[in-house]
Amino acid sequence: MDESFISNCKAVAAINPEHQVFLVQHQLTHRFYVLKIMDIFNAGIYRKLMESPVEGTPRIMACKEENGKLIAVEEYFSGTPLSERIADGTLSEDEISVIMRDLCGIISRLHAMAPPVIHRDIKPSNILIMPYGHAVLLDFNAAKFYSPDTQEDTTLLGTKGYAAPEQYGFGSSLPQTDIYALGVVLKEMVSSLKKPSHRFDNIINKCTQMNPKERFSCADDLLDALDSRRRGGKYALPGFRTHTPWKMATAFFTYLFIALASVTFTTNEKLTSGQNILERVCFALCCLSVVFISFNYLDVQRFLPLCKSKRRLLKAAGIVILDAAAVFLIVFIMTIVEPYL
Known about the structure:
By secondary structure, this protein is α+β, with helices and mostly antiparallel strands. The chain has helices spanning 2-7, 43-51, 82-88, 93-111, 175-191, 201-207, 219-229, 245-264, 273-294, 312-337, and strands at 9-16, 21-26, 32-38, 60-66, 69-75, 80-81, 117-118, 127-129, 135-137, 144-145.
């Protein structure tokens, strides 16, 4: 299957000719894929990922060894490298939180494999941000299977600045090696923010400890730490997430106004008490949905990719469309239920 699949792929463009990475099109299905020719590789990793695809990473379609090289064809993603988002300074704190949660999930799934897969080269250029705002982790050239019995890495792989100390001969790569790289990536994202933020400082510091035992023990622990610090808690309402006094005060009076307006809201004096209550509840839900969607509560904007557009007008249009859809759905449900009250 590998031989025939690869032979049916025709090169369309060079993505990175220096590293022999090409965009190819399968001649039978007409689908696009990425073809890589690697000098340094672990064929077992690619076979494992082909047999057991991991969500958040490119699916390996085929791979074969030839003349001391590994040829692999993998799923093609159309996204923006995180390195570009960092360089242009367009990331927000909410986006950083989403990206980190995605990466933690991917790393957790890799480390849960049998045997665990350690990526060893997590860096912004190996992370794609998709149009809907979520992250995909690429490039398993440096990956290895984790073995607790290994004393040190036989081959020093990774990227300077992101590679953990143990990748330079101070020990063997282990799950905390990827935690170290995640901490460096988080630090770079935070440094790109237009307004300084310090709410990730403790997490970054713990991720990048020299001693692996002093880092987070696993990606799930890192994820828990991120959620607990996410603007005052994962479920904190818009306005109360940053603990900024003026924002909290504004939010308090906004929610109070919605509550008071909902209590007094009525469209027809002839309605039954049940219908009045339903309309007031729906009015409150409509108001709250606009607030929650506009301020991306629990990353609700991910349901409409347009909301993640870099262009402000398109992003605003996406938010308005999502607001309108939510209000319409609430009103539609109300019109169905109301006659029965």
